[in-house]
Write a structure and sequence with these properties.
This protein has 21 helices and 27 strands. With 734 residues, the chain is an alpha/beta fold. The chain has three domains: 266 residues, Alpha-Beta Barrel (TIM Barrel), CATH 3.20.20.300; 198 residues, Glycoside hydrolase family 3 C-terminal domain (Rossmann fold); 117 residues, Sandwich (Immunoglobulin-like). Strands 11-16-15-14-12-13 form a six-stranded mixed β-sheet, sandwiched between helices. A five-stranded parallel β-sheet has the order 4-3-2-1-10. The longest helix has 17 residues. It binds beta-D-glucopyranose (BGC). The site of beta-D-glucopyranose (BGC) has 9 residues, from loops.
Length: 734
């Protein structure tokens, strides 16, 4: 412990130490039923360690001044916020960003977000959120990086670097939600997550650990229980795994009132759960004030020790010291939000680029890119909309700054003849609309009858060369507490797509969503489909770049698209079954196979698999070659593949490496992503991509949670997505 901190601790009263553990909210970032009260007075009395929900020169300066002038020890406050995918300039939602597979871009998004946040007095961002999720019903898919541990880990580390390694604007990152929050049963938010330790260590923990390895300063505990004990009070999780195994040395903050919520989990009264949390390794209590109001009593009753409190306090003080707050409590704060940073042309350009790079082209029957002189019928509830472009968790973003799809298309193609019709409401259900409008009006229902709206759209469509339908979810139909049981296009939008398809005109379906949607029918009806997620401030310009071919789409899915909700959880790296299904028996198609692992009514495969995404050009993969097909011990192998751009456009391709371990001491997944490289290829150009493979790539956790590799045969496969790879076998002996 540094001298300054130990000297300070020696001067602190017990109340002052407990005060440092208290994180309060002010402003409008409320995501729970409880709101902090009497904040200023509490700061003055030394009962607050940090705040969130406040940003901008005036309030931050005012509140920090209270801490510095009124509190006895003048310990500066730490100011945090949910800067999730941008601060003032909003970038695509994290699910969208993850579909870029572009780590440099994602790191830069974190850096630019940090520049804006720092300029408004913030020190700490509640990001990255890297909960693995295999369930598209869960609304918070929108905030995460998809279903895969490897991709999620790379993104997690990139974001931590972007926030924390940013010169004078470096902030503290907070990886969340530790742990397993994305595995909420049945996709219902805040629900229990029950799984084997093997699955935790193999599939769900790696992205959190990657953040720790990248030096993340803080960790947020999750709402759910893990093995029966809520994460916020789970010592195994917060101390044994996080600190002892992984060597984490920052501080752990609870989620919003998650200490108090342990009462509802059935763990005891507020005093009991607060002591449980502190003992488990939780350092900071978000909003609920269980620590503030009960720890002293627990100390008197011998339920916690002064040492427990001092340890937590020291961790928080050390974080403040790391930020330089003791030397400069007004760090980076400007009297006016600086125009050269906030929503600057540079940030907007980066947001536009990110919006385009996040798009995933799921289908294209030679319709895209569009001609810039075409007569286009632009249809749909999200086509001329600015309110829903940012996506969930865009607290400091202003939707009025956003570019709609209509505006973006006009900007990109002034010579195009674009007509517009609403076609359908996002939803016609006032209750769902009310839920989606909780943070401001996002859904405005046109009262005209559904048939009239569709008929109007069809009339426009019939006059056009091509239809672009922009459909999907309103932004708060995904995100926190926004689970959906039916994840199809909401409202009458499917009927709209069917009616537009029936015109026989080429139909492009662009959709906004915070999750994979079930779009089997639409995938047959539309000639081209683009997932644009929620693209952020520059969404409209970004999608226009894609639609007109100024940017050739290169996104690849980070989450499988279920064929139907009944398939969920559906993910590419599933385990094997003893009764695999390989289609009906060849030659006996009239005798259906029985006793196989399959559905009677739908395929086993998702509609679109993990890693999938098309381009306006085509790429041809050559055979995979290995530097050796027999290896021993700590050998290093090289797997190579030559990829050629065989189409008519320059483009980018994410070349993906998957490894299969066919025989081991326990049943292993059918394949696992172990590497990827995004390359740019001009028309006709080819490149050889090489992956270095070591025994680290072969390791897995066994049932004793021992992490090692086992000798035998491995299949090294490379391809454009998880379902289309070519592999070569290597035998690897000890
Ligand atoms: C969310 C967290 C968020 C926190 C503070 C909670 O409801 O689960 O992700 O960081 O609120 O806004």
């Amino acid at each position: 412990m540094s001298d300054v901190i130990s000297t300070l601790l020696a001067h602190m009263t017990l109340d002052e130490k407990i005060g440092q553990l208290n994180l309060v909210i002010a402003g409008d970032a409320v995501t729970g039923a409880t709101v902090s009260e009497g904040v200023v007075q509490k700061i003055a009395s030394g009962a607050v360690g940090g705040m969130f929900g406040v940003y901008g020169a005036t309030p931050v300066r005012a509140l920090q001044t209270v801490a510095l002038e009124k509190s006895r020890l003048k310990i500066p406050l730490i100011f945090g916020l949910d800067v999730i995918h941008g601060h003032r300039t909003i970038f695509p939602i994290p699910l969208g960003l993850s579909c870029s597979w572009d780590l440099a871009m994602i790191e830069n998004v974190a850096k630019l977000s940090g520049d804006e946040a720092a300029a408004e007095g913030l020190h700490w961002v509640f990001s990255p959120m890297v909960d693995i999720t295999r369930d598209a019903r869960w609304g918070r898919c929108a905030e995460a990086a998809g279903e895969d541990a490897y991709l999620g880990s790379r993104i997690s580390a990139a974001m931590v670097r972007g926030y924390q390694e940013n010169g004078d604007n470096s902030l503290l990152a907070c990886v969340k939600h530790f742990a397993l929050y994305g595995a909420a049963e049945a996709g219902r938010d805040y629900h229990t997550a029950d799984m084997s330790r093997l699955a935790m260590f193999e599939q769900y923990f790696p992205p959190y650990k990657a953040a720790v390895d990248a030096g993340v300063a803080s960790v947020m505990s999750s709402f759910n229980d893990v093995e029966g004990i809520p994460a916020t009070g789970n010592k195994w999780l917060l101390t044994d795994v996080l600190r002892k195994q992984w060597g984490f040395d920052g501080f752990v903050v609870s989620d919003y009132t998650s200490v108090n919520e342990m009462i509802d989990h059935g763990m005891g009264d507020l005093q009991t759960v607060s002591a449980l949390a502190l003992k488990a390794g939780l350092d900071m209590d978000m909003v609920g004030e269980g620590f503030l109001t009960t720890l002293k009593k627990s100390l008197d009753e011998g339920k916690v020790t002064e040492d427990d409190i001092t340890t937590a306090c020291a961790r928080i003080l050390r974080a403040k010291q790391k930020l330089g707050l003791f030397d400069n409590p007004f760090r980076n704060l400007r009297d006016e939000s600086p125009k050269e940073i906030i929503l600057s042309p540079k940030h907007r350009a980066a947001a536009r680029d990110a919006a385009a790079r996040s798009c995933v082209l799921l289908k294209n029957d030679n319709i895209l890119p569009l001609q810039k002189t075409a007569k286009i019928a632009l249809i749909g509830p999200l086509a001329d909309d600015k309110r829903n472009m940012q996506g969930t968790w865009s607290i400091a973003g202003n939707w009025e700054e956003c570019v709609s799809v209509l505006q973006g298309m006009k900007n990109a193609a002034p010579a195009a003849d674009i007509s517009y019709a609403l076609g359908a409401n996002v939803t016609d259900d006032p209750l769902i609309a009310a839920k989606a409008n909780i943070f401001g009006e996002k859904v405005i229902i046109d009262p005209r009858p559904e048939n009239e709206l569709i008929a109007e759209a069809v009339r426009e469509a019939e006059l056009a060369d091509v239809i672009v339908a922009v459909v999907g979810e309103a932004q708060e139909m995904s995100g926190e507490a926004a689970s959906r049981a039916d994840i199809g296009l909401p409202g009458k939008q499917s009927a709209l797509i069917a009616a537009l398809a029936a015109t026989g005109k080429p139909l492009v379906m662009v959709f906004l969503s915070g999750r994979p949607l079930t779009i089997v029918n639409e995938s047959k009806q539309a000639g081209a489909i683009v997932a644009m997620w929620f693209g952020g401030t520059e969404a409209g310009n970004g999608i226009a770049d894609v639609l007109f071919g100024d940017y050739n789409p290169a996104g690849k899915l980070s989450m499988s698209f279920p064929y139907a909700v009944g398939q969920i959880p559906v993910y590419y790296n599933h385990k094997k079954t003893g009764r695999p299904y390989a289609g009906e028996f060849p030659g006996v198609v009239d005798v259906p196979s029985k006793f196989r692992s399959r559905y009677l009514d739908i395929p086993n495969e998702p509609l679109y698999p993990f890693g999938f995404g098309l381009s306006y050009t085509t790429f041809e993969y050559g055979d995979v070659t290995l530097s050796e097909t027999a290896a021993r011990g700590n050998a290093t192998l090289t797997a190579s593949v030559t990829v050629m751009n065989t189409g008519a456009h320059d483009g980018e391709e994410t070349v993906q490496l998957y490894i299969t371990d066919p025989v081991a001491s326990l049943s292993r997944p059918v394949r696992e992503l172990k590497g990827f490289e995004k390359i740019a290829l001009k028309r006709g150009e080819s490149k050889t991509v090489q992956f270095t493979i070591t025994t680290d790539h072969l390791k897995f956790y066994n049932n004793d949670l021992h992490h090692d590799w086992e000798a035998g045969e491995f299949i090294i496969a490379i391809g454009p997505n998880s379902a289309q790879t070519r592999g070569v076998a290597v035998t690897w002996e000890k």
